[in-house]
Amino acid sequence: MRDRRTTGADPARYVRASNVTTRAGAVLLTAVLVATTLCVADGRAPARSTPAGRGGPATARSAVLFIGDGMGPAYVTVTRVARGGSRGSLRMDRLPYTALSKTYSADSPVTDSAAAATAMACGQKTVNGVLGEDASAVYGKQDGARLESIALWAKKRGMRVGLVTTTTVTHATPAAFYATEKDRENEAGIARQAVASGIDLLLGGGRKYFPDDLRTMARKDGWTIVETGQDLAAVASLDRHVLGLFAEGHLPYQEKIEVARKQPAADAAGSAPAGERGTPTLPEMTRWAVERLKGSGQPFFLMVEGGRIDHAGHANWARTLVDETAAFDEAIGIAVDRLDPKTTLVLVTADHETGGLALNGYPDEKDGIWSTYHDPQGDKEDGPYSVLSFMSGPGTTRQGGQPPHGPEDPRPSGIPLASAAHTGVDVALYAWGAGAERVHGTLDNTEVYRILREHLENASGAR
């Protein structure tokens, strides 16, 4: 471009133009300062651009928390080896960030599911058996101060909220995200809190805790109630709250559902109960929940529990434990494959470990983990022993139920108990997506709440 000074143009003209520009700039600067002052006086920060994936009002952030109930580190190892051999890999193995999580409760080095879920849902320790209340509670006798869960916090800020479980929807882990209760066993009372919670979807078992009068109330409050996987699939959106009650109590084990589906439909009323055939699996419920929550166009929080992992551990049923953990892992893969790591945080953890599962001896790879092992160089009195065993539980001799895989399912236990005890060992915490880098080292389980909230706060702009 040519220099205008060489064209014979009037210099005074440019002086006048410069003065106009200066005055215009001063007016603009004054307007900006006034607007900023008004924003500050009103308690609002001035608007600013936010890079993609960095949070703020311009970015709709979401989070999914997976909880494998009772899923200690050995459960993950055993499932990996059982399904893919020693060199195998689970979906949770491939999540990029990992930490250890301390699980103790406010009154014990060994937590129950209620206290552990409350710690993760509400960010505070409480005593065993208590849901959504602080440590001043006395189990079954005295309420503590009520705590607000991350689910209800998110709902108040306009996010969609969903809870999915293979237990009753009123069981300890899901209930910690919407209920306050000094006795986790009061599932009938917890069911009423579920209906009043205002969350968008609640899927699992527990029909027996929702009598006709409560169902009528739920429908008036905007809930759609579904009882089979087919009915759930037909729900296309979250225009109404969705309550899935797919069993009277807990959902059938994964193996039971798979066996029922393989049988001809004509036999479903006989050898394969219709309820088992029509029950959605955890991966199926997770897929439905993720797709509907994403389809709403709003940021969301979703908790998915593999609840029956714990039940298999309490019974010392190793093959069933692997089935349930593998289904849980499949659900993780479904979510990760459908979500955006720039805006969504996925956390995977356990509330505690159950039974003290161990992988013993030096079995040949070809023999696998379902075998027994005998050390040829060992003491003559060291007879063959099970490669898989538990520290406590009914073992192979005190079984009170029918294992899904028959007599090959139970493994020995060291301390004979009717039901295996929880242990106090640290569990793994895995992370993927936006904010996942905060997961490293050894953390308290209350940090799950803080990590989730910090991530979601950046989405809603709320403090």
Plain-language structure description:
There is one protein chain. By secondary structure, the protein is an alpha/beta fold. The protein has a domain at 62-202 and 284-355 and 417-460: 3-Layer(aba) Sandwich (Alkaline Phosphatase, subunit A), CATH 3.40.720.10. Helices cover 34% and strands 17% of the residues. It contains 14 helices and 17 strands. The chain has helices at 11-41, 73-84, 113-122, 150-156, 172-175, 187-196, 212-220, 229-233, 254-262, 274-277, 282-295, 308-314, 318-338, 446-460; strands at 62-68, 97-102, 160-168, 201-205, 223-226, 241-245, 300-306, 344-350, 353-354, 358-359, 372-373, 385-386, 388-393, 413-416, 422-423, 427-433, 442-444. The protein has a ten-stranded mixed sheet, sandwiched between helices. The two termini are 52 Å apart.
- What is the rounded distance between the termini? 52 Å
CATH architecture group name of the domain at 62-202 and 284-355 and 417-460: 3-Layer(aba) Sandwich
Beta-strand content bin = 15-25%
Q: Biggest β-sheet, characterized?
A: 10 strands, mixed
Could you tell me the CATH topology label of the domain at 62-202 and 284-355 and 417-460: Alkaline Phosphatase, subunit A
- Percent helix, as a range, is 25-40%
- CATH homology superfamily name of the domain at 62-202 and 284-355 and 417-460: Alkaline Phosphatase, subunit A
Structural class determined from secondary elements: alpha/beta
Number of strands: 17
Poorly predicted runs: 1-58, 268-272, 459-463
pLDDT averaged residue by residue: 88
Which overall shape is indicated by the principal axes computed on the Cα atoms?
A: globular
What's the CATH first level of the domain at 62-202 and 284-355 and 417-460?
Alpha Beta
Radius of gyration (CA) equals 28 Å
Number of separate helices: 14
Main-sheet strand order equals: 5-6-4-3-7-1-8-16-2-17
